[in-house]
Amino acid sequence: MDTNEGKAAIFDLDGTLLDSMDVWHQVDVDFFASRGLTLTDDYMNAVSAMKPDEVARYTIERYGLDDVPGELSALWDGMVLEAYGSTVEAKPHAVEYLDHLKASGAKLAVATSLSPKVRGVAMRHVGIDGCFDEVVSVEDTQAASKSSPEVYLLAASRLGVRPEDCTVFEDLLTAVRTAKAAGMHVWAMEDSYSAGNRPAIARIADGVIDDFDDAPRTLL
């Protein structure tokens, strides 16, 4: 039965479909150590919703580095590619949930800040690369991060589904707030890196889960 016909689900990757936030943290730890810098919580909060080239520019400017943004982004990509292709796994029951939604008639999209190369390796590794009708990135928009709704609206447009018929799955407070402000339904995936924002996330989101087995079977 096509219970979700005419509906769409839009998924973040890092921290939502993928249990991958530790990868970026380890990359940050290793990179900062190599430059003799101290990794701080306020830095992590500042870059959490930025796309890679924005993170590079912000890091270079903040710490007065001599790096070129594109080269720095490429360095980070190289550091994470092996991890995404070998150690990162999907969040519990994520693959089964995607299969259910697809079988129920929903259209599926990814809205991510990951670069095409990294997201491709990750999605292939966990076996979800064939699940989606569309894959979009903040790099496909004029926005600098998910603090703008553009990436979600682009996904909805490409899917041919109205924003009010879309459900977004995200883990970060900024992204949850933005998707909700775009007129979409939002379910939040609990992740250890968002633990400090859980009360605020719970107030904004339509629901909070830590396992896709608890995600809604019928989309709003």
Question: What would your notes on this structure say?
Answer:
This protein is α/β, with parallel strands linked by helices. It contains 9 helices and 8 strands. The chain has helices spanning 21-34, 41-47, 52-63, 69-84, 94-103, 116-126, 150-159, 173-181, 198-204, and strands spanning 8-11, 18-19, 89-90, 107-112, 134-137, 166-170, 185-189, 207-209. The strands form 2 sheets. The chain has a 6-stranded parallel sheet with strand order 5-4-1-6-7-8, with helices on both faces. Helix 3 packs across helix 4 and helix 4 packs parallel to helix 6. The mean pLDDT is 92.
Condensed summary:
With 220 residues, the chain is α/β, with parallel strands linked by helices. It has 9 helices and 8 strands. Helix 3 crosses helix 4, helix 4 (69-84) packs parallel to helix 6 and helix 8 packs parallel to helix 9.
Describe the structure using short key phrases.
alpha/beta, globular, 220 residues, two-stranded antiparallel ribbon, 9 helices, six-stranded parallel β-sheet
What is the chains' assembly state? single chain
Helix content class: 40-55%
Low-confidence segments, given as residue ranges, are none
- Per DSSP E runs of 2 or more residues, the count of β-strands stands at 8
Report, as a whole number of angstroms, the end-to-end distance.
16 Å
Q: Look at the structure and give the mean pLDDT.
A: 92
Order of helices and strands: EEHHHHEHEHEHEHEHE
Structural class of the secondary elements? Answer: alpha/beta
Number of helices: 9
How much of the sequence is in beta strands? 5-15%
CA-based shape: globular
Rg, alpha carbons: 17 Å
Q: Mind describing the biggest β-sheet? A: 6 strands, parallel
- Order of strands across the main sheet: 5-4-1-6-7-8
